[in-house]
UniProtKB/TrEMBL annotation:
One of its GO terms (molecular function) is hydrolase activity. It is found in: Mitochondrion. Residues 760-780 are annotated as: Disordered. The lineage of its organism: Eukaryota, Fungi, Dikarya, Ascomycota, Pezizomycotina. This is Ribosome-releasing factor 2, mitochondrial. GTP binds at D75, T76, P77, G78, H79, N129, K130, L131, D132. Residues 763-774 have a biased composition (Low complexity). It holds the Pfam family EFG_C. Residues 1-291 form the Tr-type G domain. PROSITE patterns: G_TR_1, G_TR_2. SUPFAM superfamilies: EF-G C-terminal domain-like, P-loop containing nucleoside triphosphate hydrolases, Ribosomal protein S5 domain 2-like, Translation proteins. It comes from Phyllosticta capitalensis. Catalyzes the GTP-dependent ribosomal translocation step during translation elongation. During this step, the ribosome changes from the pre-translocational (PRE) to the post-translocational (POST) state as the newly formed A-site-bound peptidyl-tRNA and P-site-bound deacylated tRNA move to the P and E sites, respectively. Catalyzes the coordinated movement of the two tRNA molecules, the mRNA and conformational changes in the ribosome. Mitochondrial GTPase that mediates the disassembly of ribosomes from messenger RNA at the termination of mitochondrial protein biosynthesis. Not involved in the GTP-dependent ribosomal translocation step during translation elongation. Keywords: GTP-binding, Hydrolase, Mitochondrion, Nucleotide-binding, Protein biosynthesis. Belongs to the TRAFAC class translation factor GTPase superfamily. Classic translation factor GTPase family. EF-G/EF-2 subfamily.
Amino acid sequence: MLYYSGFTRRIGEVDEGSTVTDFLPAERARGITIQSAAISFHWPPLVANQKQVPSNDGAVSLPRSATSHNINLIDTPGHADFTFEVLRSLRILDGAVCILDGVAGVEAQTEKVWKQANQYHIPRIIYVNKLDRDGAAFERTIKEIGTRLHSWPAICHIPWWEDGTAKFVGVGDAVHMRGMLWEEGGDGRTIKVQSLQDLEASSPKFAQELKKAREALVELLSEHDDDMVETFFDCNEDHLAIPAAEIIESLRRCTLKHPQKIVPVYAGASFRNIGVQPLLDAVVDLLPSPEERPDASITMGTLKGTLNDLVSGKMAVETVTPEAEAGKKKKTVAKATGSAVAKLGACSLAFKVVNDSKRGILVYVRVYSGTLTRNTVLFNTNLGVSERAQRLLKMYANDAVDVDEIPAGQIGVIPGLKFARTGDTLIAYNTGANPKYGPPAPFNSLQLRPIAVPPPVFFVSVEPNSLSEEKNVSENLSLLLREDPSLNVSLDAESGQTQLAGMGELHLEIARDRLINDLKAKASTGRIMIGYREAITSDSSPCAQEFDREIGGRRARAGCTASVSPFSPSIATAPPSEHATSIPLDSSNWLTIEHPTLFSDGEPVGDAPALPETLPLRAVIHALQTGTSAALARGPQHRFPMHSTAVTLTLDPASQIMSDTTPAALTGAARLAVAAALRDAATKASTALMEPVMHVTIAVNESDLGAVVHDISAARGGHVISLDADDASSSSSSSLAADDIASPDLPLIDPARIYAPPDPFGSSASSSAANEAARLGGDRQRQITARVPLREMVGYLKHLRSLTGGRGTFVMSVDRFERVAQQKVKGVLADISGGF
């Protein structure tokens, strides 16, 4: 595209790492796209002394592709691990070209991105690529568009195979009824166009198939566009007599309609430079301009509406002066006038943040209203801070050009912003002489629709090489998170590990390389340590311990008696006693402090000795609770924190509290007594090992349901709770994006009703492809809810993708701790010792 538009002088190759938009070293090394890249060009090429002409006003006499248009192209990754790059690009796109592999057909990630584009109402066209390769099956791919993407393919191009069975040499244009032949081995600029009459003379079989394609295209458009029906009758029901301009306009109406039921399909082989220029014409002719997109939704405090309604004054808002907001003057509320709205100079959305080694922090923005100008003050409505845009850039992949302004509908870059993050709304508002106050309410709460961040599913630990590097690693991780919000950093309170989570193994591998090689952080990544627990299985005898030590140069003494037992719910539901205090602890532990000679308010019973004035009952209970928690932090056998343990402490002021007893002494006595009771219980019966069990929600196709359920139940020791559960209250996936789990069933399309030109490999291949597509047509999405041990979920993403052909997705959260089966304890302990 860049070569034919005149932007570059050479054609880059992905396999060679020479493409303009794949400029990262990791992208060129792997031959894949990792991060989205933006670039602008004109199509048709803007020659010298030619002005860019806006699209015509709907007249069908002149196609839009006859005049030069500015195209903002965003190249997005295709790998499932980088789905967030696609998500944040979809959020600001006006239209999309979906590229399919003519050999592989509709792949798993294609289905996922297609559903995401449905949510954002993105009009799409499809380009079937790689038709020059062995095994390319255009017919099968067309059938899969209907059965897997649930859209009707409107075939605008059919492949032209030399002599009907040999290599791919060009395309047949069903819209203009012509054949386009590309020169073999050329750069694609030379195209030999043959009319239908020429084709009937030279390639009658191909001409006949082209007529079938035109008939199928007109019939399909007539089912979804009333204007095409009228045109069809005006042309005496002759499919071939309908002007190409009328078909283009009908395709455009169907493409821009929501929901989009018809998707135009084009054919080509980019490696052989075949089919790219007609695709560029289709982008201009069929995809919308910014003015044709639905108005951007906004929120202003409790108000909801659209940006155009606000700018045009249709949205009634009340303003509060900045001085009143700051509390310097009496608050006055008034209805916003036209002048107040007119002060809103621009509204934009930050959709990407990049740390460039030469230019610093670059914030990519899409302008939705007004014009961003250089040196303007931008107010971040998400963070409530103001920053000045000292420079504005127009990005051309890795190159940049300074510009004075970024108008509405365009994409630009603001370098040097310190606070802006992905999804923040940046507005330019004329506040007059006092810009520090920011815009008045409710303009200071104006927000565009944010960008949804999918939950992470893959985890590794990040450890600095030394304590002195800890601060530097933390700062670099924060920078990494600002660039890529789909990464998540958390600190495990038990192990002290810093855990980095992402969308997959490759995603975290790229993040690690970026952290260590680009940001020069001195750290390493490793495996996640799973936080196991320990639980006693028998009661202990009462264990009395006395604490007698010097603390701060003063002797401190105290006594305590403790017993432990496995926790049962009846202990928590027992009626309260006025001579006992019950306290729930972490990890389902329970503490009961019995004080038979004291009431719950600390007063003694009868002639029993009272507590010293320096030790009220509340302080004593707090000290005993602290000591108990300290003892429960280490189990007697495996040294893991205790779980489901009921501790009973007996407090006798007469024998356990002396004149030199302090709260610290009571804490020490409780810790010693509880630890002794745990050891006593462990000598009577071995403790049980407890492991974290995750609440997992998995979305798979019905054809893969059996394999995934068997894997969860048999191989991973999980427990399937339900299939297709509607109860969201018990599910951890309530915050999950709708496209990942439980997508609504889309209408099934009968592949037999889809026209597709036969592939040049014989009728058996074509029929088998159609039968396969028909089988997949009823492959609806199913949802599995299960509980699975966390150790079995480490690295599960890769296994799930292999089981489901890349189509399975899942989310999980900690549900509870459960006992490890006795036959698996030895393996778990061996795995733990190997992890340290």
